[in-house]
Amino acid sequence: MPPPSSPQCDPALEKRVKRHVIGRTREFFAVTAPGLEPLCLKELSEPPLSFQTGRAVTGGVAFSGRIRDAYLANLHLRTATRILMRIDTVHATRFDQLEKGVNEIPWELYLPPSAPVSIRAATSRCRLYHKEAIAERVRRSIAERFATRGLGTYSPRSADIPQTVFVRGTSDRFLFSLDSSGDPLYKRSVKTEVGKAPLRETLAAAVLMWAGYTGDKPLDQPLIDPLCGSGTFSLEASLMAARIPPGHFRNFAFMDWPAFRPKRWVHIKNEAEKVIRRPPIRPIFASDRDQNLCRALEKATVKHGLHHWITVSNRDFFDFSPRDLTRRTGWVTLNPPYGRRLSDPEEKNRLLAAIIDRLHREYRGWTVVLLVPGRNPGRLLKFPVTTRTLIHGGLTLNLLIGTVP
Ligand SMILES: C[S@@+](CC[C@H](N)C(=O)[O-])C[C@H]1O[C@@H](n2cnc3c(N)ncnc32)[C@H](O)[C@@H]1O
Hints:
Elements: H1 11-22, E1 26-32, H2 37-45, E2 55-57, E3 60-65, H3 67-76, E4 80-91, H4 95-104, E5 117-124, H5 131-148, E6 163-170, E7 173-179, H6 201-210, E8 223-225, H7 232-242, H8 262-273, E9 284-288, H9 291-303, E10 310-314, E11 331-334, H10 345-362, E12 367-372, E13 386-392, E14 395-403
Parallel strand pairs: 5-6, 8-9, 8-11, 9-10, 11-12
Antiparallel strand pairs: 1-3, 1-4, 2-3, 4-7, 6-7, 12-14, 13-14
The structure holds S-adenosylmethionine (SAM).
S-adenosylmethionine (SAM) binds near residues 198, 227, 289 and 335.
């Protein structure tokens, strides 16, 4: 039985949800890590999404569409961190104005009545600037709206965050957005275990895209991930090659919204599943000297059917050549141990020099995709590379891409 306050049991509310949330074009924002905005815009404008309303700005891509488009964006975007749905704006210079404005927003159309809701506030150039106080007032005002309208119990806070309202104040104008994703989208629910310095899936996907990996012809162009750790590059490459949407294995916050229609979602998922493919041989090779990480990765690939794409082996990078794996050339992705994990900087430099030496000797014709910290690491490579600076886990990393002559 659905709860008494659910839209299914309240025809009037159901009608309002249909009219104001489902049946209307709305504004959305795909949040990205810095530098990933153009890639995210490209993803939005190309199949399977093909949205033509996107506009890249600092921190993400704004787009408009129906609520279904936000579901699709959550399912398909490989480089976005979360998808926000814009709700409303309130002009306030005092807390009573803020509270009144928030109370007038029809939250019952957006939030499930009994969900724990977390508020995340940020301000710039506002007379109200205390983030915690703003969050507290917003939380209270939403709760009050639910309570006074008999819409069910609103639980104001929880340790895990199934629903999150983002409040962004700029020059006394507060913009309210609802997070449709829940867990950040780099959580694909594929890995069973992570190593000590895993890459974010969104960054790994972006790196592959920058390197020209599309997964379109995976058999012609294999991928070797010889320091795979938890296997982020291999897993992302396999999802791309298999045409599995990055959100295929997980759930989203919007699935609890009053506007969510499970049958439509099943249809969206079924449509996406129609193009998923399986190769005759495995074109992705992941390996690491850490046995436990290899075991965990193997387990994750089997669990998600990605073992048709990825061969996992527990071996040292210096003990094999690409010729042992494939007769073709493709991409070799490397994210060597760095920074805080290696206390001795000399050790780090020696390892990097040895890796680069091996790439020069053994990987002729392969496109090297190397992610390393430090100043001007491109000088270590004796072939032309394109370089890009990225921030990851508070560390500045250089992405070097070039083909070994
Ligand atoms: C920074 S981590 C890679 C993280 C990985 N990209 C991920 O997303 O989980 C570096 C990895 O290199 C592996 N490694 C270091 N030296 C190696 C070697 N000689 N052969 C194979 N793996 C090595 C470590 O075990 C570690 O898992």
